[in-house]
Amino acid sequence: MLRALTGLLAPPACLACRAPGTTPLCAACRRALRVLRPEAVCPRCGLPRPCDGGGGGRGRGCPAADAPWARAWAPVAYTGPATALVAALKFRGALPCASLMAAQVAALAPPGLLAGGVLAPVPTHPARARRRGYDQADVLACALARRSGLAVEACLTRAGPRSRQLGAGRAERLQDGRLHLRCRRAPPSRVVLVDDVHTTGATLRAAAAALRRGGAAEVVAVTWARTL
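Request: output the structure for the sequence above.
Response:
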């Protein structure tokens, strides 16, 4: 009943272009998403091949060559309608966005990427999660669990001062000690990290490194979108 009344007061609309009648994305905005096919991207950093000239690599080789994960991948580029969808999930409480994101991850994932292990959301800082009332990575991981059959396990915890990644430069994001992530307990052997966006990879690096220190033998990083 409440949802029906809300729909009358605020009819459904595309979260990207505001076209009425369809949410979270209209058909045109779904078509406008830039899909990153697994065979066309680097399995280490998730950037289009060749990956040595972009995404922060600046011609010095793959930017994730020394990353603590075995593989990183996202199905879409963080541009156009994808930016609006992530913002709606993070800042506007549009939790149904996670279902669309999870469906695309599950449908387009490279063979074997979601085969075995557990899904571990990259935790938002507790203060930020309390303010929002939810953790968007956890919401996305739960939606992906329903599609993949993998269990969600809160392997990681986040402490220390809040370090705002949005708006920070690459060098600032990658500073040692900027993010404080640790394992709650010994993690499973294989862990699939889940987050919304892979930008510089700083947060994913901190999370994967914590899991490897905790005893995980293999960590893969899965996000819905990848900054190019």
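The CA atoms of residues 123 and 158 lie 6 Å apart.
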